[in-house]
Structures are given as C-alpha cells and as structure tokens.
Amino acid sequence: MRSEIFGANRDPRRCLTGCALAAGLAAVVGLSGCATYRPAPLAAGPNLATTAQRLTVDVARLRVQPLKTIQVDARDGLSPLEVAVLAVLNSPNLEARRRASGVSRAQVFAAGLFPDPQISAGTDKPVSGPDHHTAYNAGVSLDLAGLLASANLRRAARFAAQQVDLDLLWSEWTTGQQARQLAETALAAEAKAAYFGQVAAIAADRDARSNRALQNHDATLQTSAADLAVKLDAETQAATASHDALKARRDLNALLGLDAAVVLPLVVDPSEAIYDEATLRQALATLPERRPDLLALKAGYGTQDANVRKAIIAQFPLTSLALAYAIDPAGTTTRGLSASLFLPIFNGGRGEVRIQNATREQLRAEYQARLDAADAEVKNAAAELTGARTLAVRLRVDVPRLEALVKPALAAYDRRDIDSQIYLTLSQAALSRRADLDDKQLAARLAEINLETALFLPPAAARTAP
Q1: What residues does 139 pair with on adjacent strands?
Q2: pLDDT by residue (tens digit) across 412-449?
Q3: What are the structural domains of the chain?
Q4: What is the pTM of this model?
Q5: Which CA distances in Å does 357 have to 23, 137, 264?
Q6: What gap in Å lies between CA 317 and CA 144, rounded to an integer?
Q7: Which residues are CB-neighbours of 286 under 8 A, at least 6 positions away?
Q8: What pLDDT, in 10s, does the model give residues 114-151?
Q9: pLDDT tens sequence across 14-61
Q10: Could you tell me which residues come within 8 angstroms of residue 53 by beta carbon, excluding any fewer than 6 positions away?
C-alpha cells in the first residue's frame, strides 16, 4: 500500500516536500493558462446603416432552408422575398441573439470538464513538549458526486445548446417573414395612396370649378357640397394609405438596421402560393420533424430528461473519496482512506427528483400545447387565405364595373340628369369598394405569408426559383 502514494524505500519527508513543490508548480502552470481581462466598452450611439449598400447580401451565410434559393439583386429593385433575406442577414436583434448563442456553446465546453482532484499538504513544527520532530501530512481527494453527474451534465448542456440554436433558427425565419409582410404592406399602401391621390387630384379640380361656379351663382350649394365631399373622401383615403406606407417602411428599416430616412427600392412580387388539401395534410404531418420551434422544445425536453437522471444519480450516498499520508511528531507514519457519505434518512434527494420530474411533465405539456397551436395556426392561415382570395376575386369583378359608372354619372350630374346625392353616393361607393379590394388583396398576401411561416415551407417564388 505504501507504493500507492510514496515509494517504499524513499524518505517520507522528501516525498512530502516534493508533493508540496509539485502542487505549487501545478498551481503556477494552471494560473498561467487562465484568461486575462480585456475591457469591452459599450457603443456611444446607434450604428444604423445610412444607405442600403451597407447591408450584407452574403446568401451563403443563410441557415434558413426555405430562403436559401433566393438571390438578392437590388439592381432591379427589392422584392419582399429579397427583403426577407436581407432581414435575416442584417437584423440587429438577430445579431445579438447569435452572440448569445456563444454562451450555450461555452456551457457545453464547461460541462465536458471533469472535476479537478484536490491535493493538500501541511507541516506542524512543535514549539514545546517532549516531541521535537516536525509533523507532515499530505492527501488527495476526488469529488465522486461530480464525476457521477458529469455524463448527464454534458448531455443536458448539449441539448440546451441545440435548443438555443433551433430557437435562433426559428427567430431568423420569423424575422424574415415579418420583413416580408412589412414590405408587402408598404407596397400595397403606396399603390393605394397613388390611386386615391389621382382621384383626389381630379376631385380637387372639380371642387375648385364647382366653388367658382357657386360664387358666380352658376351652381347650387348642394352641388358644391357634393364635390367637396368627394374630394375630402379621396384625400382622407390617400393620406391614410400614405401614413400606413411610411410606417411600414420605418418598421422595416428598423428590422434591417437601416436609418429611418433610407428608402428601399421595393418592387412587387406577383407570385402566389397554391396549396391543396393533400399538400397541407402532408406538411402538417411532418411539421414536428421540420419546424425549428417544435424541435427546440424537443431539445429542451431532452435537457430536462437529463436533469431527471442527474437528480436520481445524485441520491447515491458516496460523495467524495480521499487518500491521506501523515507523519506525526513522534515519528509515527500513517496512511489513510476516507470517504464522505450522507445518510438518506430525511432528505435523500427525493425532493429534487420530484421537482425535476414535475418540470419534465410541464415541458411535455408545453410541447403538446405548441403542437396543437401550430396545427391551429396552419388551418387558420389557410382559411384566411381562402377567404381573402375569394373576396378579392369578387371585388376585382365588381369594382371596375362600379368605377366605370362614375364617369358617365359625372357627365349626367353636369347635365342635371341626376342630383348631387346620387352622384355623391356612387362616387363614395366606388372609392370604398376600391379600398376594400386593396385591403383584401393585402390580407391575402399576409395570410399566404402566415401560412408559409406556420408550415416552414419555402415561399411560392422560392419554390419556382432555379
């Protein structure tokens, strides 16, 4: 047994001195590998891009599979899909989350390290009494509880890192789709503003002529009031649409990390997604294996399952083991083995096991709830898409017919064949139905994006891209 720590034929005092020197050397070497502090001051102000040319367009960095086939080329304008790619690559919020994912990787590294053994050494020099020899002692101990827990710690850390990565992937996808919705909203609102601006210009000209005629007593007050009402209605619609467009562009710029004053050259993407019942059923059936947020919850469940295993193993009563060697002042040499155990009488780790099991059941319920919610999201988005497209188809037939009646009605109004109330009712009905058509077309585009988001499927234009 002597050879376990010291050689059988060696001077124990020299061995103890050697142990102390070795421990000191190990401490110096260990400290030499420690990290050093480097200051990292915070930014003094915003770092928003002042031109679109500063945006990153390196598509090779994309991790979101549904967007990988989309190429960004601003020379012919930026479609909502190209804007989605730019958002994934340039969003400041996503960049912050990518930096945060480094914490989980560091935790995986930390969990893979075994607990360090502890070495102790000491001397006792008598100052009085019959014994005049210096006493020496040395020992080494190992944390058995830490060793037993290390495998499940590593397993839990790997699952946790996987969950963080999948959550980031889902955030990239939803951020890109949000940017796409903002681009669609801005384009639709700008088209509506342009149309109502033209109507408002025509109505303003007629209102001016009607007002002059009223002053010359060539028109009635009722006639002038009807012309003014049409002008105000068109101007209100145009102003509302312009406000919506500007707000959507500001929100989009914030998402891309652009200054609010930057104007992106947005262009319309005419493609539409077509989904039949069979496609929806197939996509829904594979959703748990494809959608990153569901996969992230699975990884979180794996982390908690490892925590349950760790809590069960922690009930093992032997927590540490130590070897000792000592020489007392009388010259007596001793070797010893000690172990630390706890008696599982009152606690025994049963409370921690119950807590971890309850947490695992909570995560199981949360996963089921998210799975149910995903199913509802898909079906609701599909219903919204069908309803909005159906209404838009009807309005595309009726609105041009209604608008075609306004011009002859204006001529009849000038000839006094119809009164101002009929003319006003017809004009406002045409404006209202045109606004409804624009709103339904936008609703259909947004519902299409919501459906593709929920299904984690490539957008229609991406599916037809080479």
Answers
A1: 120, 324
A2: 867 777 766 677 777 778 888 888 899 999 999 999 99
A3: 65-460 (1.20.1600.10)
A4: 0.76
A5: 42, 45, 52
A6: 10
A7: none
A8: 777 888 888 888 777 777 778 888 888 877 777 777 77
A9: 554 555 555 555 555 555 556 677 787 777 767 677 667 777 777 788
A10: none
| Single-letter amino acid, residue 141 | S
Tell me the two tokens of residue 386: 């069908």
Locus of tokens 């037809």:
464
- Tokens for 459, please give them: 């957008």
Q: Which residue has the tokens 């145009």?
A: 238
